[in-house]
Design a protein that fits this description.
Layout: H1 3-9, H2 15-23, E1 27-30, E2 32-33, E3 41-42, E4 51-57, E5 65-71, E6 86-92, E7 95-100, E8 106-111, E9 116-119, E10 124-129, E11 136-142, H3 144-151, H4 154-158, E12 179-181, E13 189-192, E14 194-195, E15 204-205, E16 214-220, E17 225-232, E18 248-253, E19 256-261, E20 269-273, E21 278-279, E22 286-291, E23 297-304, H5 313-322, H6 341-353, H7 360-373
Helix pairs in contact: 2-3
Amino acid sequence: MTVSGAKARGFLRDSYLEWVETEGLPVTSGLGVEVATVETAPWARLGGGARAALVHLDGRGDFVNCFVLELPPRARTEPQRHLYEEVCYVLAGHGGTSIEGPDGRQHTFEWGPASLFALPLNARYRHFNASGREAARLASVTDLPLVLNAFHDQRFCWENPFWFRSRFGADAHFRGQGEFIPVRPGRHMWETNFVPDLRAFELQPWERRGVGSANIKFVLADGAMHAHMSELAAGTYKKAHRHGPDFHIFPVTGHGYSLFWFERDHEYRRIDWGPGWVYAPPDQMFHQHFNTSPTPSRYLAVAFGSIRYPVTSDKRGLFGNGVDVDVNRGGRQIEYEAEDPRIAETYRRELARWGLEPDARMREIWSHTIARSR
């Protein structure tokens, strides 16, 4: 092949990033981003005055991206459908989404701050802002990069007529109802399409991830996109762990900070977070979450490869037996007793800055660790 022929056909192309260049949306990047304030621009594709932005986090990996969608007062998007999965989290405002089923029926639900929902694959839908005075802002994580790079055909993605009938589930799943599927701590599932308020959702204990830890895994629209919510009790922090890329973490309640480091790093990177932020740990980067709020802190994590359909071997191992198993036993987690002493020292100082004390169970763990080190 001649050089000119190679250029004409392209070399090392990224069909997703080529599409990004044509959409005219601002792109923000970094380890973490305050999505509540990120700059948006009009998005002609959605119409109705909708504005949007793209967030490309350092840890987004090869398969996913993040959109920020802003709906002005009384805005209503044009009907959409697409062959990528999308999980939506409401940052601010009140509105609703109408989803058309394969039988022509409309499933309409109203959302507000801290709502979570998924769009059934390739279903026709519209978003609307119910307020006449305030804008609404949503963040979504999608597998659009995977779809565009796999098929490199935009018409196939946005003009495909196929209905994925099994993705709609029960009608009650669009009304905030669902089914609890017990597995074991850290793997319990809630199957639905819509959670009205993550702040009020009942979680299940998961002590192997940390003192006072609680969690639930969501199965949304029977999709391959993963979502889970975890809670950190007041005065506590999670055990450090690592996994593959693409987990987008949205703080839901409280405030705190997270530390990030690779195995041989001597210093930590840090992000201070609260509602309105998103961050994503890069591939196999250890990370650890700390609650500095006087009340429990919750966060939502969204990624590609779900607990039902893990897709990749990394996710299968993570959700199977790896996520809460000691690294010294082949898992992904650093136990409290093995962590860098600077971790606890820093946390005590941070709590003091907020006028708080660590949980008594944390103090007991630290005392035992000190005693063993002598």
